[in-house]
Amino acid sequence: MRNESSSPDTGNNRSWEVPLSDDQRARQGWMGVLSMAPSARLCDLFDALPEKPGFEFLRKPESGLIMTQGRVGGTGGAFNMGEMTVTRCSVKLSDGTVGHAYQAGRDKKKARCCALLDAMLQQPERQREIMNSIIEPLKAEQAARDLARAKKVAATKVDFFTLVRGED
Amino acid sequence: MSLTDLAPGFADPVRDAAVSFRTILDAMARPGDVKSLPVTAPVPAPFNAAAICVALSLLDPDTPYWLAPDLRNDRIIGHFSFHTGAPFEADIHKAQFAFFPVADLARVMKDLSIGTDEYPDRSATAIALVPGFDSAGGVRLAGPGIETTCDFAPGGMTTDAWNALERNAMLFPLGVDTIFAGPDSLAAIPRSTRLTQLEA
């Protein structure tokens, strides 16, 4: 398959090989936490923020489908796994900072909150405050939820072993 | 470009693009008839309002577009890429849409794709940015969509430019369809329209 070598999926520009700057890594971190956060809890924390900046929508919250891709093994070609619903939103704060959000599901309010938080977290003067009041608590709650689920699953763990293999 | 340069597109993307598409369709169906824009969107320099409406309504990820050097900047390319996903094409021969100031029309027309005999629809669409539609001289149009004749005089057109459009009409069924995009209105001359130049 000669075409494969020119395809972006199998070339050398794999996204996970692109070196990220510290800022990008930090942003990746908070976007990940925001995308996993339960909507109601996130909106409560957002509403509790003391001051909110003025903003305009670059892209109002809109729902659509994206095709998720999978890959067989480390070297296999990408295949289309299935579609999922995604809501996206982009905002621009009054000082020009742009925030984006892509969220699973159809929750437009959550997409708007996430885009605003993404923009505010890029402002150096508010980053620490919002990390402490929103991102860190959400991260801790997620870790607790994951641990609780891991414990529940671990309680039902079964060890299998084979007595006779029946090969003789 | 920096992201802070991004501007919003249509206020209501689905409805505004449909209304604007309908206007472009009407303009193509009635050559030379100047249609005022039903909606507007923020206009990054050096584009004009009608050209932005055309771009936001017609471009998508499958339509490579070309920009004349005078219109080409990171802000415009970023704007189109964010709102439409359309790829910028540096080679004018491969572009499906070409945006240029009307002064470039004669030069640009000969490089645009005119389609093939099997697929005349694979031709490019030219979008010429004009200052207005009330200039002296101009052309008398006739052909499909025009009951008798129609006089049409967009600003900035030269004899060379009209000659280029006359040559384009002779290529029918191949050839380029042209949209004239003004500050608050647009008109079109599809390849099927016959032109006669008037004295200024």
What can you see in these coordinates?
- The complex is a heterodimer of chains A (168) and B (200).
- Helix content of chain A is 44%, strand content 24%.
- Chain A has 5 helices and 3 strands.
- Chain A has a 3-stranded antiparallel β-sheet.
- The longest helix of chain A has 32 residues.
- With 168 residues, chain A is α+β, with helices and mostly antiparallel strands.
- Chain B is an alpha/beta fold.
- Chain B has a single domain, classed as 3-Layer(aba) Sandwich (Rossmann fold).
- Chain B is 28% helix and 18% strand.
- Chain B has 5 helices and 9 strands.
- The radius of gyration of chain B is 16 Å and the shape is globular.
- Chain B starts with 12 loop residues before the first helix and ends with a strand.
Distance between the termini of chain A: 45 Å
Q: Helix/strand/pairing class of chain B, anyone?
A: alpha/beta
CATH topology annotation of chain B: Rossmann fold
**Order of SSEs of chain A, N→C?**
HHHEEEHH
How would you state the average pLDDT of chain B, rounded? 92
Number of helices of chain B: 5
CATH-scheme architecture of chain B: 3-Layer(aba) Sandwich
